[in-house]
Amino acid sequence: MTQMMAGATHWRAAGTSGRSLAAPRAPPRAPLPPPPRAAPDGGAAAAPAARPLQRGEQEQQRQQQQQRTSLVPETLETMESDDELQAALAALAAKGQAALTREERRARQRSLDGLGVPSFARVCADRGVAPLVRGQARILQLNTGLYCNQACTHCHVESSPKRTEAMDAATAGRCLELLAAAPGVHTLDLTGGAPELTPQFRRLVSEARALRPELTIIDRCNLTVLLEPGQEDLAAFLAAHRVRVVASLPCYSQSNVDGQRGAGVFDRSIAGLRALNAAGYGAEGSGLALDLVYNPGGAFLAPSREKLEPAYKQELSEAYGITFNSLLCLNNMPIKRFADWLLRRDALEAYMQALLDAFNPAAGSGLMCRDTVSVAWDGRVFDCDFNQQLDIPAAAGSSRAAAAAGSAAAAAGEGAGPSGGGGGGGRGRGFSVFEVSSLDDLTGRPIAVDNHCFGCTAGSGSGCQGATA
Ligand code: SF4
Ligand code: SF4
């Protein structure tokens, strides 16, 4: 699942692109009630007088019932009644994904122009940020597919139960080959959608663990997936393979979580956390790390971890008996659903201003794209998950030539990547995992930055692994 960042709209209708997942499993049917017993007088037996349930018991019963069924029907219902989403779907059908992404980029650029900002690369150069060039790959992040049982208002991947794109076996196999040949990579980071609901997830985890016992394997988990039918053994599977769980929980209040992630998500997230705790996650000395991710519920920046983590720990422990290791505080990236959310409220320029005001050169020097290789479900290679969703591929070509081009562009105050200071088109098709001989091929290449990148450099910095400053 994706944990970052924010809300708006370019949904692809199911099956419009990509390889299809098997149809999502239907929620199990409620068991049929037993037939009424014949009463001595030929009528139905009178039921024994039921004791009225106390309030707590009713709540428990409601939660138990809820947890026996999939969240998907509820998510689809919410999507149907979401006017903004329906408007976005209509725009998508009329214009297509590429045109909407270009429009979104132009809107960000207009905001920056209004603020007198030349480009992300120029600001970095002026503020003493280290050159925007890739170092050695340390993290391999795979988006295993876009299907999700949720459809959060802030999702930058625009996942939902309607998405069907998923990594195939050949692409997963190639990623494992590249991982095996890259001893410098210390982390395999699996994301989605809900990665656990994609066909290659358990294979990737099992084979990567067998390959590299010391590897950190991350599952970006939305928590509610633990309650989906067929995932009853998920917590045990993750624990057995020593997977680090990084889970979204943007607040410890039910109304905030449900508002951002959908009705019923908070209760299910708490149940998911309890299942992880029961499997040993979050317990001191267990070696099973459970980290939570906070992202803001509106057009403001994330507070520091130091400020928020103690409150999270106290609230979750006191109210629900839940323990976890660390809280990652991430900013919302002004792309996709969140960009749309901002635009509809005429708040994009104010948000870009807030990101600029909080520009932190140290965060720029720690950008995740410096050492992360991001691979899409179809095997294409990107500098980060955000560029993946914006279809901005990593720079192709020889490392030396690309680095030289990047340095020249940065010196000119333009983007180091193909988008430059005014891209949005002409980025080329990029390349796939089948077209690189090693992840080291990317070392030294310029990073494909663009006007959304200010989301990574605000405050303490924001990346998939947390703060970057
Ligand atoms: S819709 Fe799914 S992938 Fe997107 S943010 Fe929500 S849980 Fe994560
Ligand atoms: S959005 Fe830009 S700055 Fe952030 S990780 Fe991606 S390429 Fe780097």
Give the topology.
Blueprint (H helix, E strand, L loop, with lengths): L54 H13 L4 H9 L2 H13 L1 H18 L5 H7 L12 E5 L25 H12 L6 E5 L9 H11 L4 E6 L12 H7 L2 E6 L5 H8 L3 H14 L11 E5 L10 H16 L5 E4 L6 H9 L3 H10 L3 H5 L6 E4 L5 E2 L2 H6 L8 H13 L58
Parallel strand pairs: 1-2, 1-7, 2-3, 3-4, 4-5, 5-6
Antiparallel strand pairs: 7-8
Helix pairs in contact: 3-4, 4-12, 4-13, 6-7
CATH class: Alpha Beta
How many domains would you count in the coordinates?
1
> How far apart lie the N and C ends?
24 Å
Ligands bound, unique? iron/sulfur cluster
- N-to-C order of helices and strands: HHHHHEHEHEHEHHEHEHHHEEHH
How much helix, percentage-wise, in residues? 25-40%
Give the C-alpha Rg. Answer: 23 Å
Q: What is the annotated CATH architecture?
A: Alpha-Beta Barrel
If you average the pLDDT, what whole number results?
Answer: 82
Pfam families: DUF3641 (PF12345), Radical_SAM (PF04055)
Protein name: Fe-S oxidoreductase
Keywords: Iron, Iron-sulfur, Metal-binding, S-adenosyl-L-methionine
Organism: Raphidocelis subcapitata
